[in-house]
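Replying to the earlier thread about multi-chain prediction with a worked example.

Input:
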Amino acid sequence: MKQFFIFVKKEFFHIWRDRRTLLILFGMPIVQVMIFGFALTNEVKNSKIGILDLSKDEATATLSQRISASQYFDLVENLKSSSDIDASFRKGDTKMVIVFPEHFRESLLHSNSVQIQLIADASDPNTATTLINYASAIINDYQDELMGETKLPYTITTQTRMLYNPQQKGAYNFVPGVMAMILMLVCTMMTSIAIVKEKETGTMEVLLVSPLKPIMVILAKAVPYLLLSIINIISILLLSVYVLDVPIAGSLALLMFTSILFIITSLSLGLLISSFTASQQTAMLISLMGLFMPTLLFSGFMFPIENMPLPLQVISNIVPAKWYYYIVKSVMIKGLGIEAIWHEVLILTGMTVFLLTVSIKKYNVRLA
Amino acid sequence: MTDEKVITAKALTKKFGDFIAVSSISFEVSKGEIFGFLGANGAGKTTAMRMLCGLSLPTSGEATVAGFDVYKESEKIKKNIGYMSQKFSLYEDLTVKENMRFYGGIYGLTDKRIKEKSQQVLADLHMEAEQNKLVKSLPLGWKQKLAFSVAIFHEPAIVFLDEPTGGVDPVTRREFWEMIYQAAQNGTTVFVTTHYMDEAEYCNRVSIMVDGRIEALDTPTNLKKQFDAASMDEVFLQLARKAVRQE
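Result:
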């Protein structure tokens, strides 16, 4: 046991003295959460719009005012004629133009029907759709007010509730994703590199000639990264709760327990990679190409798995991050308990046992 | 040197599939002997050494190291040997002291013993001033001498040195061999592979491997007589030219 602690201490020296890696280890989670939280958001805020008001009456003034007052839109231009519309888009800043026809109020009051044209820059289709929806919602609200108590003979109104994430914040989606990604990266890549490094420098041979058991070498290599990853989880959670306002809806203990399970899965993957690679570069490439990309693509964090062709859906099942992502979403965002995720926890446990058995077996084989 | 045999090998063989890396080699090494293990690249030296260190199981034959069987007692063998690989075997990002602390620790030495021994090694190497420097900041010759001291830090019965002086200047090599002699005098058996024929002359006995077999085994003086050669270099060349196997 004493030998084990001496070994772990040595590993901490390695990590501590490699300042650049240390910075990546602790800086990466913070930077990623910040980038995803503030830069890569798919919420649309302060989009620049123009309004072409051809009737300039009380109703259009109210509507214009309401639209420009909303946080989603930023009225930058009052257009004079329809020929200005094209020019406005061509300048590149304008994302949407609202056109009120002539005699807006009169038509509305007398013929009970009037049209508003919403022209959006669909070179980014998602943003365009979102903007149109926001604008339509504001216009519908106004219409409802006008109608007041008078009910139309047949109307179906839909009532929408956005469960778990009423404000539809992007952070609810990516915090679990970033957690899965960081843990995968730190545990798998760092452990495999740390072990392969000893092979590369020749110290692994010396360790194998020593009375230390191979399993002890492997465990001692993994322990520091387990601790570092737990610190990373805590920092991600603190950031998401206090900076991004994403609350932890479920049990923190369950969240930590499943996270540690996933860390161990990633560590065993790292061990497996290190057992069949001989250079640090190879280990890094395999970790990045073989794990980082699939984690990004198949965890469901960026692209919905349900929309993928069947073969890809099947492949996504072997990506551990997919299951962890599901667990974190369920526990952290939806506040569900173990009864909702035991299935996924079982799958992760199975994967871990399998990976650990294979990699320890590979290590116990003598170097021959 | 006494008559006590610390390494014995009888018809030791290692095959990788159809390839016979080591073909039925037999030899004995006495306590306190400096045993040179020579051969061209690919002759099977490293494979033979790995079997003796318990890193690789022989395909057939028998061998004991420090009185323990290589098949069944590799754990006990490991406790009684030191090893210095041809690659540099210290941690460059640890200090001199931390390296000694680590290697002493994994061999189960007590803290007190590690402290005493560290002081002694530092004094012998005249490196007291460098004890808290990172190993990577030391010149290669110092590193190599330190690596040897660390390999015999736990006072093993046998130390295996795999091309320990590669890339080292002649003066340091000389000093390195003085350390080897010192260790042998203290009763440590030294099993050393090398490509430098002048170093072969320093050994008590030398074996030369060609294509997985031991083609010659005797003292340097007798070998030179046997092959009618002026130096070990000539002896080696005469034998190595017979090699069929390429690297």
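The longest helix of chain B spans residues 170-185.

Feel free to reuse this layout for your own posts.
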